[in-house]
Amino acid sequence: MPAIFYYRHTVQPDEIDNLNHANNVAYVQWLQDAAVAHSLARGWSPERYLALGIGWVVRSHTIEYIRPARLGDEIVVQTWVADFKKVTSRRRYRIYRVEDGVLLAQAETLWAFVTYATGQPTRIHPDVVASFELPGSDPPPYQPGDLKMVRA
Question: Which of the four CATH numbers 3.10.129.10, 3.60.140.10, 2.60.40.10, 3.40.50.970 does domain 5-136 have?
């Protein structure tokens, strides 16, 4: 089970702001979409979490915007789980333009594991922890031509 997950997306017209580049809110959506897709690929669908009455909520996002994404750009979000604590997990991301491998942004999300009915933090389910490999260090950057590693 690979520790690093790749999520592809093409920048859409509704993600473009009045400065003619992807709005900062779109980046947050891409982070969430990549995290959910990674979880799903590891066997943890939103429905599975709901059935157990436990799952993830965001405590914080940190994003560094480096270069703008433009309409029609194909981007790839490289993401991995950096750590698990008792009730939190840190996930990291890098967003690249697929065509030339330019780094557009890097980010980190602190997720908290909660009981949905109460919103109270709870210990991360051991089956969730077992489903994700931790890479141990930051992965190498995405390179153009790495599409074989990137999920459509």
Answer: 3.10.129.10
To the question of pTM greater than 0.85 for the whole model, the response is yes
Q: Residue ranges per domain, the chain? A: 5-136
Q: What is the pLDDT along the chain (152 residues), one digit of tens a residue?
A: 579 999 999 999 999 999 999 999 999 999 999 999 999 999 999 999 999 999 999 999 999 999 999 999 999 999 999 999 999 999 999 999 999 999 999 999 999 999 999 999 999 999 999 999 999 888 998 888 775 554 44
60/111 Cα distance (integer angstroms) = 7
% helix / strand / coil in the chain, to the nearest 5? 25, 35, 40
Alpha-carbon span 143 to 6, nearest angstrom: 12
How is 128-151 classified by DSSP, letter by letter? HHHH----SSPPPPP-TTGGGGSB
